C-alpha cells in the first residue's frame, strides 16, 4: 500500500492544529509540519504525536513555505493541508481506499466546505471550492505567487475528483475577515503591480462590482443569509483594495 506524507504549514494554531493532525494520523505515514516559530501551545500539541516531524522556518511566503514542507517529506505522495483544515471521516475513508490504486500521473482534488462566521457555506462560490490536495511530487509543485498559491501540475498529469469533503474552519468573525483582507490584499497588490495596468481605480471599481454580483447573485450567495451578504460584500472590498494598493506601489 502506498505511503503518504501529509504536509502542513502553521503559526500559532493551538486552537485548530489538533483537529487537523487527528484527521491525518491514521492514514499518513508521516506528518511534516513547517512552523514559523509559534509562540503559543502549537508545538506542545504537535509533540504529542509520534508521526509529526516539525521543522521550524522563518516565514518565506505561502508558496515557498508549502514547497519546503513537500521537499522535507520522505514519501513521494503528498497530502497537503492548511492548519485550519481537516479531513471529514468520509474523505479519510475515501483516501484510505484510494491508497491501493494511486497513479503517479494523476493528481486528486477534493471539495472544500468552508465555515464562515458560524455557518457552513454553500453559496457565493464557496462550495464545492475544489482544491488540489493529493499529488505525486514528481509531477506537481507549488506556484511562486505571493498569494492565492496553487499547485502547478505537469501537462501530462490527469486530474481526478474525489467526492468527500475537506472541512475548512476558516473565518470566525467579521474582524478576522477584515484583518485577513488587509494582509492578503497587500500581497496580491505586489503581484498585480508587476502587470501593465494603467487605470487602477477604474479596474478596482469594475472588479469589486463584478465580484459582488457574481458571488451574491449568480453564485447564490444570498442563500447563506446575513453571512452570505457579509462575505460577498467584503470580498468585493478586497477586490477593490488590491488595485488601490497596487497603484501606490507603482
Description:
- By secondary structure, this protein is α/β, with parallel strands linked by helices.
- It folds into 2 domains: 167 residues, Spore Coat Polysaccharide Biosynthesis Protein SpsA, Chain A, CATH 3.90.550; 77 residues, no CATH class.
- The protein contains 7 helices and 13 strands.
- Strands 3-2-1-4-9-6-12 form a 7-stranded mixed β-sheet.
- Helix 5 runs parallel beside helix 7 and helix 6 runs antiparallel to helix 7.
- The longest helix is centred in the C-terminal third of the chain and has 25 residues.
- The mean pLDDT is 95.
Approximate helicity band: 25-40%
How are the strands of the biggest sheet laid out side by side?
3-2-1-4-9-6-12
Main sheet specs? 7 strands, mixed
**CATH architecture level-2 label of the largest domain:** Alpha-Beta Complex
Total number of distinct structural domains: 2
Could you list the spans in which at least 5 consecutive residues all have pLDDT below 50?
A: none
Quickly name the level 1 CATH class of the largest domain. Answer: Alpha Beta
Q: Cα distance, first to last residue?
A: 53 Å
Average pLDDT across residues? 95
**Number of E strands:** 13
CATH topology of the largest domain: Spore Coat Polysaccharide Biosynthesis Protein SpsA, Chain A
Spatial shape: globular
CATH homology superfamily of the largest domain: Spore Coat Polysaccharide Biosynthesis Protein SpsA, Chain A
SS element count, helices: 7
